[in-house]
Target: SH3 domain-containing protein
Amino acid sequence: MIFPFQPLTDSYVHADEGKVSISTATLNVRTGPGLSYPVLTQVHRNQKFTIVETKKDWYKISTERGQGWVANWLVTRESSGTVNDSGQQGIVSTNGLRLRKGPSTADPVVTVLNKGDKVTISETSGSWLAVQSGNASGWVHKDYVNQTKSSSTSAAPSKKQEAKQGVITAGTLNVRKSPSLSSPIAGAVHRGNTVSITGSISGWYEIQFGNAKAWISDNYVELSSTSAEAPPSSSGFTGMITVNSLNVRSEASLNGNIIGKVNKGEKYPILTERNNWFEIKLSGGKSGWIAGWFVQKTVADKQKKPSSSPQGADGTVTILHNGTNIRSSADVQSEVVKRANSGETFSVTGKKGDWYEIKLADGSTAFVAGWIVSVRTSNGAEASPSRNTSGGIRNKVITIDPGHGGRDSGTVGTRGTLEKLLTMKTAQLLADKLKSAGAEVVLTRKNDEYVSLPSRVSLSHYYGSDAFISIHFDSIYDSSVAGHTTYYNKSYQKDLAYGVHDSLASRLPTRDRGVRVGDYHVIRENKQAAILLELGFLSNPTEEANMTSHYYQDLAATAVYHGLNDYFSN
Model:
């Protein structure tokens, strides 16, 4: 069958229009459309650039250093079209219509639509329509969609006015500039955040996002009967740091003096915003500027009145991860007095909110976050986990599938590294972390043995796995290609894929290659939520050197652990 809008050759290039917004912290702009081309310059998260032309999976953009190419899976395309707030309906008029990621024939195919399929139209860009069909969204050419009028004889209002308050129920929910899944992301809100709802259309709520209006899906909001409240901070935003050891500067520029540092996961009130720099309020009342491309902007948390002193508690805590921060007070902004490693145990002397006060070797006391430790009471029983702890994972059945094994060595690195050995080491580290958090762990193999693909899937079905994680390392003829990729095959596996991949992307030092649909047996034939991870390229000498280190394997295992915890907490 010949599908509409099939590119004639692999070298298909065409002039384009519109803009892209950078989706990663730092992205290389290359002199040609491929990872083997030299780096022209680097751009950063949320910066916007004009598209000059498109070639396969690459966009050519204009930068201050000249024109260069960026990978389309690491950017968000912003069309120059208009938003259709009325949610106009349409019916596909041909079989085999390709639903694409962007409004051009060079954009990747999301899925294929058939004659008679119904779509909701949210935006137009030239001859293209942004549509949603079921759980899939993307772009199709307007010549192959019959647009239908509203069943009402009179024009329906584009937006219903609301004055409500809602609480976010998803772990992390994207906030968009318009009510469409293809609309640019303006920020994010998190579970427990309170939002002021000012309007609605089918499937979407308009919310007050700082000093502007934005949109969120109504599937992840629990309405409150109380009236909407104004955000508690001056800008209405909190910034969560996405990298370790981020410099705080005296002015909104890389030329500013460094006056402090902040770390990954810490949150600070945003005072003002200037040219993609955020002025934040530090502990002690000081303020400074941080680069906005290393910050996830979200609505300000409601201030909780802290208890005046730690509540009584006893027992012990066991550290789950290497490098865990032990702080001077029950606050992520407080001073780090010690870093502890996985397996270290401390006596509990008190509890303050979600934090445990513990006794150190020198007799002094300090605090550790309850969501990164395993707790046992004085009688030896495991204590109930705190909010946001590994309680999401507790009692879940998680099958870990170390790829290859035995006579199947998998790929072989440039220095002779065997994939089957790396997958086993990483899987065992992940299994240890999950068991410490109370999960029931099943390994498809426990040593260097061959296990058939159907047998691996059968284990997933037999144990009724809540999640199946297949661990692999990649290889390709081009030794310059690098990065990690997450694959899923079925629609019910998609949430797990994005939950784990978001954690990998925020923690691994390698290039983020995104989430993709893959035709692999262990996920294709799996009736459970199952994903396949490619944690790097053994064909890349630099990545091979990194991946053979215990540090990288433990970092990858930790990232998967946190991704599973987020997934099960949603």
About this structure: Helices lie at 419-436, 453-462, 494-507, 521-524, 541-547, 550-569. The radius of gyration is 25 Å. The longest helix spans residues 550-569.
